[in-house]
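User: Please fill in residues for this 492-position structure.
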């Protein structure tokens, strides 16, 4: 592994600031790393020429004393973000050939901060999935392997390409999106940090929509500090997004300077599921012990509507998806399959353009929104969602953060759960509640399973209190001391 790709984002930033390496040198090393990880299928589109061009421009700015927060740092972008002039597919056949004439707000902020784009990462189609196996461009492989077993594993989803790229040292960081856990769950599976900020903290303008009341952009990195740096660049109010909140963006990195003495950590009893693997329970208890040792107070809490979060999510999210995906008709952009008339063209285009999981969710969403079922399903789900938020609001009157496992298992083998949608959906059981409530959540790598695979712990905080979440995450990261690397790196 090249020593430059072995750096994390903050270390690379410091070397650039000292003049010990140029952005061009750093970017060239990562362009080579992107090529080296092609067996993982982590990228849909590589942009090496654009990356070098952006790096040279960054070096010129630095020479003038105009360095930004992310100046010269090469990162990867999930292919759900519209990037001007660069193929954007959302992992779907129906967006074949779509080169947006505009830039998403989040990526525009990153480029303004000086970041360099290495390419667009693979993902579950329209962000619908927990394994990164629903992509039209093929499954992504996790760079980790079980001890003594070389079967390829899923990286988690939907931001699995971003997770795999960061874990395999092909990018210093990457953007992800989280609708029901699609940043945090792949971060756990890949042994990296994944941060979902509060809904409204980052603009959704220029994100290909899945479920508009849930989708949120966030960073995926190799350390908590790196996530804090990236989120500082990504966040901020955007008048083009009506759900974007007009609040100052704190210096998240500065929040890491504080300790956790006296902070109250909640442990929700409802997250102890029947049949939960013993190693997940043990890791959770280890997290409790680490925070106690760091001076935090631990309190048992109750989030009684947690058990309804997953079924509620799988009503609300497909309902919003069925509406959002109605725009894909083959008329103005993307795939067009000719038909005998306009209706036939619509049907042929959508039939060929959408994959099985997208069709499943569109059908579910259309059903729950249909006459006679809207009140019985969708409106009831909306009311339950309010109760889920109230549970958290009540809990945060007595605690500062909530600690839970990130996922109910380590990464599983490619193909293991594809024939059982319910088993696949259960991968999000620990992440969905925070998404339904719009709260910030972070996954921190905290240990290895018996098979030698990474396991993550999740922290959930009050709305717009990412600073406390980062502070506690930093303490958890320090106590865990997770420094394991995936076998793919050693064999590269």
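Assistant: Residues filled in for all 492 positions:
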């Amino acid at each position: 592994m090249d020593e430059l790709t072995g750096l994390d984002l903050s270390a690379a930033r410091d070397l650039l600031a000292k003049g010990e390496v140029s952005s061009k040198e750093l970017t060239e090393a990562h362009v080579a790393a992107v090529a080296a990880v092609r067996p993982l299928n982590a990228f849909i589109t590589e942009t090496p020429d654009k990356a070098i061009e952006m790096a040279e421009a960054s070096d010129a700015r630095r020479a003038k004393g105009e360095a930004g927060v992310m100046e010269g740092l090469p990162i990867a972008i999930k292919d759900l973000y519209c990037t001007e002039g660069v193929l954007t597919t959302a992992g779907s056949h129906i967006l074949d050939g779509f080169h947006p004439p505009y830039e998403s707000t989040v990526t525009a902020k990153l480029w303004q901060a000086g970041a360099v784009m290495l390419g667009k990462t693979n993902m579950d189609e329209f962000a619908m999935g927990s394994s990164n196996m629903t992509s039209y461009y093929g499954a992504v492989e996790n760079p980790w392997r079980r001890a003594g077993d070389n079967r390829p594993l899923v990286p988690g989803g939907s931001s699995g390409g971003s997770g795999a790229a960061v874990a395999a040292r092909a990018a210093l960081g990457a953007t992800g999106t989280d609708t029901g856990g699609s940043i945090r769950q792949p971060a756990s599976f890949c042994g990296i940090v994944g941060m979902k900020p509060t809904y409204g903290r980052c603009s959704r303008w220029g994100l290909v929509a899945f479920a508009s009341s849930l989708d949120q952009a966030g960073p995926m990195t190799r350390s908590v500090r790196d996530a804090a740096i990236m989120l500082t660049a990504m966040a901020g109010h955007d008048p083009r997004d009506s759900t974007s909140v007009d609040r100052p963006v704190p210096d998240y990195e500065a929040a890491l300077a504080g300790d956790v003495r006296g902070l109250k950590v909640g442990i929700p009893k409802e997250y102890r599921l029947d049949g939960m693997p013993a190693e997940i329970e043990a890791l959770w208890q280890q997290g409790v012990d680490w925070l106690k040792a760091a001076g935090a107070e631990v309190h048992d809490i109750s989030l009684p509507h947690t058990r309804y979060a997953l079924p509620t999510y799988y009503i609300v999210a497909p309902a919003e998806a069925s509406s959002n995906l109605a725009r894909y008709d083959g008329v103005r952009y993307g795939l067009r399959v000719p038909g005998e008339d306009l209706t036939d063209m619509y049907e042929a285009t959508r039939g060929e353009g959408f994959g099985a999981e997208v069709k499943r969710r569109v059908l579910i969403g259309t059903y729950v929104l249909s006459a006679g079922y809207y009140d019985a399903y969708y409106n009831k789900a909306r009311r339950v969602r309010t109760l889920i938020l109230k549970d958290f609001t009540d809990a945060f009157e007595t605690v500062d953060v909530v600690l839970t496992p990130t996922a109910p298992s380590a990464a599983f083998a490619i193909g293991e759960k594809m024939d059982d949608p319910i088993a696949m959906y259960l991968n999000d059981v620990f992440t969905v509640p925070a998404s339904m409530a719009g709260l910030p959540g972070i996954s921190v790598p905290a240990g290895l399973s018996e098979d030698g695979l990474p396991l993550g712990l999740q922290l959930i905080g009050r709305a717009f209190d990412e600073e406390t979440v980062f502070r506690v995450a930093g303490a958890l990261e320090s106590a865990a001391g997770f420094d394991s690397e995936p076998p793919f790196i050693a064999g590269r």
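For context: The domain at 9-258+439-490 is CATH 3.90.1300.10 (Amidase signature (AS) enzymes).
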